[in-house]
Design goal:
11 helices; alpha+beta; 44% helix; 287 residues
């Protein structure tokens, strides 16, 4: 099953961060593969978490933090008994206008382009020696405070974390950062557009998407597959089905779910849902 898109709402409109404390044991199987636009960190205080990012799995132990990059499919796939960890999510609004000079570079580029570029490698696990765990301790304390100036303190912690990310990334030796920037920005625009308009069948048609982004249909499909490892059609359908599953779990009637997720023929919706979920939507409604 392809990773589903998770829509995240920040805990406070005033702060670009969301912090969740989780307690788990070895019986917990973790969540499904998913992705989101927010940067995410697994900050382990007790026990251990196995972070799976598709290409690799690494255990994170107390005093360490796991990093999930922008739009990177991931899941916590294993836990030790009595695990206590924080999930810290940072909204792109915190850095969408920021620039920095990357390792090996001479000119500043957008921080988002750095995150997305295959020319750079970010560690999956950060050790305490990087200073990042101290940043998280301050961030958790300030985010839970209603004191005067706490908004500024939280944002200062976020920028300290971004500074550590920049200092810890390394050139991959694959391609030029400058050449990748345009493609990275284009992919970002495409993913956000699809996430916002997935229910609109006309705008999600391949000719319409190709025209919007200035590609031919064949090149659009090759571009998307190259940068995401999935086909564009599968991606859109998987996104629609994952949203449909959320609506069903929330009690929305099945015919309404079909319409709300861009399937105007319920029988077709049911077939596609079963293809991706292994069960028809009526099964999820009963469970």
């Amino acid at each position: 099953m392809l990773p589903y898109h998770e829509s995240i709402v920040m805990s406070s409109p005033a702060l670009p961060v969301r912090i969740i404390l989780r307690k788990s044991d070895a019986k917990y199987k973790g969540c499904e593969f998913h992705w989101h636009e927010e940067l995410e960190f697994y900050y382990v205080r007790q026990g251990g978490v196995c972070l799976n990012t598709g290409n690799e799995s690494q255990w994170i132990y107390p005093g360490q933090a796991g990093f999930v990059n922008w739009c990177q499919p991931h899941r916590g796939s294993g836990f030790l008994d009595q695990t206590l960890h924080y999930i810290i999510q940072i909204s792109p609004s915190a850095f969408e206008k920021e620039t920095a000079i990357p390792p090996g570079g001479s000119q500043p580029v957008s921080f988002l382009a750095m995150l997305m570029s295959p020319a750079l490698v970010f560690p999956t696990v950060f050790n305490d020696s990087s200073g990042i765990t101290a940043c998280f301790d301050r961030l958790i304390k300030e985010a839970g405070s209603a004191g005067i100036g706490s908004e500024f303190a939280v944002k200062a912690c976020i920028f300290d974390i971004l500074a550590i990310l920049v200092r810890q990334c390394k050139p991959s030796g694959r391609t030029s950062l400058d050449r990748d920037t345009a493609a990275s920005n284009q992919l970002k625009k495409m993913l956000l557009f699809i996430s916002d308009r997935y229910m609109d069948t006309e705008q999600m048609a391949l000719p319409s998407l190709a025209k919007r982004f200035g590609f031919s249909v064949p090149y659009l499909c090759r571009f998307f597959k190259k940068h995401t490892s999935v086909t564009l059609t599968d991606y859109i359908n998987e996104l629609r089905i994952s949203r449909a599953a959320e609506l069903i779990r929330n009690g929305t009637p099945l015919p309404a779910v079909s319409e709300m997720t861009g399937f105007h023929d319920y029988n077709y919706f049911s077939r596609v849902f079963k293809k991706y979920n292994g069960q028809p939507p009526s099964f999820l409604k009963k469970h």
